[in-house]
Model the fold of this input.
Amino acid sequence: MSFNTWTPLAVSSEASDWQGSVWRIVEAQHIASTMKIVDSQFEQNLLESLLESSKPLPSLLADGLDYLLATPFRYDPLRGGSRFRSNTDPGVFYGAEWVRTACAELGYWRWRFLKDAIDLEKIEPVAHTAFRSDIRTLIVDLRKSPFKTDADKWLHPKDYSYTQEFSQVARKANIGGIIYQSVRDPHPAWCIALLTPRGFSKSKPRLAMQTWWLAVHQDEVIWRRDIEFLTFSFSKGQKIET
Done:
C-alpha cells in the first residue's frame, strides 16, 4: 500500500493501544529571565501574571494539565510547521524514547536557528529541563508494516509535506499519537508525535527531572549535565559522542 492510498479507515485499521513514558526537553529560562528585571517576589508574580494574560488561551482539551504538557497545544507552529504539524493544525507534543534522543531532536533546531541567523557565531550555554511524561492512547507505528514501506517519506530530513498530510489523515481517524524513527539521533531510537492532550495518562510530568546546558556552535551542539555530555554534529552527516 503506497502513501497516496492512506485513508482514515485504512489508518485506523492499523492502530493499536499504546502505553508508555517519553522524554521531552525544553528551555528553562522563562522564570530566570523575569527575575533579572524585578526587585521582589511580588513584582515577579505580577509580571508573570501580565505575561500570562498576553498569551494565547490554552486548548480546552488541555485543561487541568501541567504547563509543561499543555504548552505545545497552546501556541501556533513556526513557519512551515513541524514534522507532523502544518501551519493550520492543532498542537503536537513531541516526545522521545531517551533523553539523548530528545536532546538530538531539539539540538538540531537550535543549530538550524544559529545557521539561519545573521552575524551570530554561537549560542552560549542555556539551561534546559528534561522531563518524563506518561502517555496512553491509540497510536500507529510508522516503523512497522505496512507503513515502513514509506520510510523515506516519514524520515525525510527537511520535507514535511508527507508527514503533515499523514497526520491530518490520522486525526480524522481519531488516532492519538504517531510513533516514528528519530531522524536526528544517529543511534536507533523512536519518537512520538502526540496529536491530542487527551493522550496523557497523568496530568503532570514525573517528579524526577534533569537540568542540561546546551551550547550551539557552527559545527556542533554540546549538551552537558554534571559529568555527562552529548555532542551532535549536523553539518557533515550526524555523529554522537557521550
Q: What stands out?
A: Residues 3-28+59-241 form one domain. DSSP finds seven helices and nine strands in the chain. Confidence is low (pLDDT under 50) at residues 237-242. The first helix runs from residue 8 to 12.
